[in-house]
Specification:
- This protein is about 55% helix and about 5% strand.
- It has about 110 residues and is mainly α.
- The chain has one domain (about 1-110).
- A hairpin with a 2-residue loop joins strand 1 (about 10) and strand 2.
- Helix 3 packs across helix 4 and helix 4 (about 55-75) packs parallel to helix 6.
- The two termini are about 30 Å apart.
- The structure holds heme C (2 copies).
- One heme C binds near residues 21, 29, 55 and 59.
């Protein structure tokens, strides 16, 4: 599912909105096993390693924006089941393609 999300192609909908890094960054560039082999190290660190410290702040900003918006939509739409699936998708995979996430959240926001 992460792969489909990164490529902007989910639930039979090709959004033509792949993530910026879909061509050049692989799963294991962001998800590396820690030395104990049992856990994954925090992704934020790798944003900074490949880019610069500003991208750690960008990571935080993306996370905050997705968290608060998904929470708000869950709260406002407890009875509308048709948005539960896309919302759950964004909640799990949203960080993999921020522009796609923003687009999906906007399409669910009817206030
Ligand atoms: C550019 C960095 C990046 C790349 C590339 C990336 N991920 Fe992720 N992934 C993240 C971030 C950020 C999170 C959110 C959790 C976190 O911050 O630790 C995440 C979370 C996940 C999760 C947990 C989802 C959940 O339900 O909470 C899975 C599974 C996952 N990634 C799989 C993959 C797979 C498979 C690929 C390759 C197809 C991939 N990721 C590529 C950054 C990345
Ligand atoms: C393995 C190295 C690597 C990691 C890890 C990585 N990136 Fe990138 N990122 C790249 C490369 C390379 C590009 C340029 C992709 C292209 O133009 O094809 C890019 C492009 C981007 C862009 C597009 C616009 C720009 O500023 O260049 C953003 C935004 C971005 N990355 C944010 C992040 C964030 C946030 C994380 C952590 C979740 C992250 N990256 C992790 C290598 C990485």
């Amino acid at each position: 599912m992460a792969k489909e999300y990164i490529n902007g192609s989910i639930q039979n909908i090709v959004t033509k909105m792949p993530d910026w890094m879909s061509k050049s960054v692989s799963c294991t560039d962001c998800h590396k096993l820690a030395l104990d082999g049992a856990s994954f190290k925090a992704v934020r660190k790798y944003c900074i390693e490949c880019h610069n410290p500003d991208y750690g702040l960008l990571y935080d900003a993306w996370k905050d924006a997705l968290d608060s918006k998904t929470k708000q939509l869950y709260k406002n739409n407890t009875n509308t089941l048709n948005i539960q699936n896309p919302l759950r998708l964004v909640q799990s995979y949203g960080m993999h393609n921020f522009r796609l996430s923003q687009m999906l959240l906007k399409s669910m926001d009817h206030d």
